[in-house]
Amino acid sequence: MEEIENQQQQEKTQLLKGKTETSSLMEEDFLSVGYDKKYVILTYNQYLSKVSGGFGKLQAIGLLAIFLLKFVGQLVHMNIGFLKMMPEFLCQFPGAESQQVCSVKQFCDNEAYLIKEGITVSVNQTSSFSLANMVTKFDLYCSNKLQFMLFGGCMIFGHFLFLIFFSHLIDTKGRKNIILVGLFVCSGVLGIMMFIPGFDMFIYLMYACLIVLGVASGLLNLQGWIYIIEFIPKKYQAGAIIISNSGKGVALIVGAMFFLQFSKNQFWLFFLNIIFAFMTIYLIVKYIPESPKYFYMMKKYRKAREILEELGQKYQGRTIKAIFKDEAKDQNIEIDETYMESFQTEDNYTTRHEIQAIETQSKILREGYGVFDRTNFLKAFKGDKEFRMNTIGIIFCHAFSSFSFSLFTYLLPNLKGNIFLNGFLIGSFEVLAYCFSGLMMKLLGLRCQILLCYVISFFSAVLYSVFDFQGPSQLTNAILLALLMFGVAANMNSTLYAAYQCCPQELAATFFVIQSFITQFLVAFSPIIAEYNPGIVVFAFIVITFACFTVSYFIQYKNM
């Protein structure tokens, strides 16, 4: 008996070889993770797969949270078109016996930005197109275009501030804390916007609030996505992208239906946004812990394992204990590589080919990394030609797709037809586009799916341009516009997923931050361009779509 105990002690000592007092591994860890002489040593993704199992409560909560974060962050932004929409006017012209419906061009002095002398103007409050929005609040009827540009421009500027100054916070302060701060900031700013007086001087306070809301929106949309996606196994992440993006489409649908059916006052839209923000706060606080991958990337392996063990106990009904493979390597622990064989036969979660792929894909990374890992990203960009070409091509296509989508959203008040019908169909087709692109990814592969989406976008734009020239009915106009936006939304989703497929997994988050920065730079021009001729905008869109089709053809897609 003493000989057996001595042998076991020697084996344990060998496993703990290289361990120091500051090691994150404790002796009791090894006593509880193995079965006899075999120890479960996994990568992070393998551990997460074991904890989450198939699609269950954890994945459902994660997908709901990722949808709500996008919805809360985009509800105001997607409905800027309604918030800056001109109401219907009634004018009393000199010599006229009664009021008549009139337009801004008829009663505004474009040089003085004032109502022409002798004309009495009032808002037709009985019209469904007369909303209590930014325009009526601050009497911007004859204002210059700059003031309208700033409503969308301030939010985009807020996105820029987020990317420059705040995008690193989830690496230094933790995922969950930053997302909760973003939700509280979003709610607080919306509360202020609800009660801002309608005097001219307070419009600058409204602009400031929109900038802060843009920062909070960036936290919720980009950082929130990173936070939640780290709980979702890789095989469900394509669906998570679709559900997250659908939050934008649903936000536009809700806005159109809200102003048409429930209230014409923007006050209650802001209040609705606050309600959903607190619903999201409750969901995260009660059901979603700090991301274990945050601790894993910071090399706080013990804390990461504790969270994963708690998740396994909570959602699988069993405690799953293991050691991270990188953790074992960092501590110079000698590993019996036959653990792969036992891992494959135990639960059949990962094949040997997949394990090798995970290991070879990680060749760039060996030190701790975070969301914005500039050093390793630049190393890959300079040293890997394929990665460099993919980066340029994907960012080009995604940036112009996002720019086009933002542009047509801001164009809503200037497009022909019923703005409520246009908004509702665009939002509906956007959601369908995300589902369509996800389905086509599986049926055709990513390359063919992206090319097909650009074809749809191109011909939809051509048809929209032709039929708009012939003056179609409101429904026809709305359907053609929705088809154009269908292709744009599908392109956005496809190029977002292409980024995930075409770069090392460890650099995916960094890729998204850089892609978002460049995209936001281009999108920043959309509120400006939206105030000009829609016909020229559509023609330019057709040209850009053809260019994106050509560029996307040469991107090298992996795992197809």
Question: What layout of secondary structure does this protein have?
Answer:
Elements: H1 2-15, H2 27-33, E1 34-35, E2 38-39, E3 41-42, H3 44-52, H4 57-78, H5 80-83, E4 89-92, E5 100-102, H6 104-107, E6 108-109, E7 114-115, E8 120-123, H7 134-137, H8 145-166, H9 169-172, H10 175-194, H11 203-229, H12 237-262, H13 266-287, H14 292-297, H15 301-316, E9 323-324, H16 325-330, H17 339-347, H18 352-361, H19 374-383, H20 385-410, H21 419-444, H22 446-469, H23 474-501, H24 508-523, H25 526-529, H26 534-553
Parallel strand pairs: 3-9
Antiparallel strand pairs: 1-2, 4-5, 4-8, 6-7
Helix pairs in contact: 3-15, 4-11, 4-12, 4-13, 8-11, 8-24, 10-11, 10-13, 12-21, 19-20, 20-23, 20-24, 20-26, 21-22, 21-23, 22-23, 22-26
Structure in words:
This protein is mainly α and 560 residues long. The protein folds into three domains: 35-85 and 139-367, MFS general substrate transporter like domains (Growth Hormone, Chain: A); 89-123, no CATH class; 372-560, Growth Hormone, Chain: A (Up-down Bundle). Helices cover 69% and strands 4% of the residues. It is built from 26 helices and nine strands. It has helices at 2-15, 27-33, 44-52, 57-78, 80-83, 104-107, 134-137, 145-166, 169-172, 175-194, 203-229, 237-262, 266-287, 292-297, 301-316, 325-330, 339-347, 352-361, 374-383, 385-410, 419-444, 446-469, 474-501, 508-523, 526-529, 534-553, and strands at 34-35, 38-39, 41-42, 89-92, 100-102, 108-109, 114-115, 120-123, 323-324. The strands form four sheets. The protein has a three-stranded antiparallel sheet. A hairpin with a 4-residue loop joins strand 6 and strand 7 (114-115). Helix 10 (175-194) packs antiparallel against helix 13 (266-287), helix 20 packs antiparallel against helix 23 and helix 20 (385-410) packs across helix 24. The longest helix is centred in the last third of the chain and has 28 residues, at 474-501. The N and C termini lie far apart (56 Å). 43% of the residues are buried. Residues 7-39 and 336-370 have low confidence and may be disordered.
